[in-house]
């Protein structure tokens, strides 16, 4: 998945963005830094590739330009990855989520910072405007975007998602516009669907999972419902509270 219909994100706008990269293939998936040690991404990012060949880049903005803010780390997946991979290969991809532990903690600064996890009982109303971001395709189909893209998308009601997608109402949310035109696309998988709370802080509401094409009319993007996975995440990272 990659952003279609978005725009260049200002440098440092989303300091929790992670680019999962292959030494030969380059950017493959997105991810979200949720603490100095941990990244959340999509399990299906590992379907066709050995995780040991991937590395995580935080502080990234322009893939082709190293501006000195990037931090490159190796990762290790944890938390029933194989079980989630099996779920991700099913018809609904309901548990399309993976946790990666960084071999060395990220250095938190103005360009690298974690995104908050949501409360496990959070459910946003239909029409809530959230943001997707990533280095994925800007047109379907092409290669990844060099510059981090961002786009606003509204949350779609559960019943509507269930009509339009192969959808698991217990573990997924969907977002997008009926007319299409704005969406995540290939290369955005694993990246965040992030929303702003009333007090101004941002939190992770979804993990980019799948869609029917990119930005097509009547075809919203599907995301892992992070509130339903918050306790699973906290259990695996050994933390009693969200960041």
UniProtKB/TrEMBL annotation:
InterPro entries: Peptidase_S1_PA, Peptidase_S1_PA_chymotrypsin, Peptidase_S1A, Trypsin_dom, TRYPSIN_HIS, TRYPSIN_SER. GO terms for biological process: proteolysis. GO terms for molecular function: serine-type endopeptidase activity. The keyword Disulfide bond applies. Keywords: Disulfide bond, Hydrolase, Protease, Serine protease. The keyword Protease applies. This is Peptidase S1 domain-containing protein. Residues 3-238 form the Peptidase S1 domain. SUPFAM superfamilies: Trypsin-like serine proteases.
């Amino acid at each position: 998945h990659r952003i279609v219909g978005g725009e260049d994100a200002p440098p440092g706008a989303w300091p929790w963005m992670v680019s999962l990269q292959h030494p030969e293939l380059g950017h493959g998936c997105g991810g979200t830094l949720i603490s100095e040690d941990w990244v959340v991404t999509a399990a299906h990012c590992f379907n066709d590739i050995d995780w040991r060949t991937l590395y995580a880049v935080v502080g990234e903005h322009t893939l082709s330009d190293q501006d000195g803010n990037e931090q490159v780390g190796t990762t290790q997946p944890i938390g029933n990855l194989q079980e989630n991979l099996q779920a991700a290969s099913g018809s609904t991809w309901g548990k399309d989520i993976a946790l990666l532990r960084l071999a060395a903690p990220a250095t938190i600064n103005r360009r690298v910072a974690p995104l908050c996890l949501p409360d496990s009982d959070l459910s946003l109303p239909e029409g809530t405007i959230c943001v997707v971001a990533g280095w994925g395709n800007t047109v379907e189909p092409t290669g990844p975007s060099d510059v981090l893209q961002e786009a606003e998308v509204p949350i779609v009601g559960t019943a509507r998602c269930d009509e339009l997608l192969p959808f698991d109402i217990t573990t997924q949310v969907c977002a997008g516009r009926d007319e299409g035109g704005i969406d995540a696309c290939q290369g955005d998988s694993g990246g965040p669907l992030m929303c702003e709370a009333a007090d101004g802080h941002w939190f992770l509401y979804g993990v980019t999972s799948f869609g029917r094409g990119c930005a097509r009319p009547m075809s919203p993007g599907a995301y892992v419902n992070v509130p339903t996975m918050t306790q699973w995440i906290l259990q695996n990272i050994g933390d009693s509270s969200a960041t």
